[in-house]
Amino acid sequence: MLVLGRKPGEYIVIGDNIKVKVVKSEAGDLRLAIEAPRDVKITRGEVWEEQLRQAK
């Protein structure tokens, strides 16, 4: 796992076509903007974990 510190307005690029940008950061609350091709599935962590539990 890679852990990075980013400030609002800063971003990271994953591969050649996924951009994750910090758009807001306040006391324990973080908002991200994710720019990716439509065929890339993006799932919130809690939803992904529930799907894993249900698949067992």
From TrEMBL:
The keyword Ribosomal protein does not apply. It holds the Pfam family CsrA. It comes from the Bacteria. InterPro entries: CsrA, CsrA_sf. Gene3D superfamilies: Translational regulator CsrA. Its main location: cytoplasm. The keyword Cytoplasm applies. Keywords: Bacterial flagellum biogenesis, Cytoplasm, Repressor, RNA-binding, Translation regulation. Homodimer; the beta-strands of each monomer intercalate to form a hydrophobic core, while the alpha-helices form wings that extend away from the core. Belongs to the CsrA/RsmA family. A translational regulator that binds mRNA to regulate translation initiation and/or mRNA stability. Usually binds in the 5'-UTR at or near the Shine-Dalgarno sequence preventing ribosome-binding, thus repressing translation. Its main target seems to be the major flagellin gene, while its function is anatagonized by FliW. This is Translational regulator CsrA. It comes from Clostridium magnum DSM 2767.
